[in-house]
Amino acid sequence: MATRKCPVCGSKSFYVRDPDEEYEIYEFDLQEGNIVFNPNNPGSDLPAIEDNTDTYCCKCSWTGKFQALKR
Ligand SMILES: [Zn+2]
Q1: Alpha-carbon dihedral angle through residues 5, 68, 58, 42, given to the nearest 10 degrees
Q2: Stated pTM of the model
Q3: Is residue 68 part of a domain?
Q4: What is the whole-number distance in angstroms between the Cα of residue 20 and the centre of ligand 1?
């Protein structure tokens, strides 16, 4: 099974920014390669995460497209 993790620090915790509200962020973990949103995320409108979505590592300064996490 493909494993996705931060290419720099190996973390599986990431966040994305709301495309309509840049100060809103949505945290999620990668569990078994699936996106699992943090239950503390604001609102109920979770953003769709596409291959080209800008993704930020929660543990280090890595930033890249979601597809960059594929191995
Ligand atoms: Zn990282």
Answers
A1: -110
A2: 0.86
A3: no
A4: 25
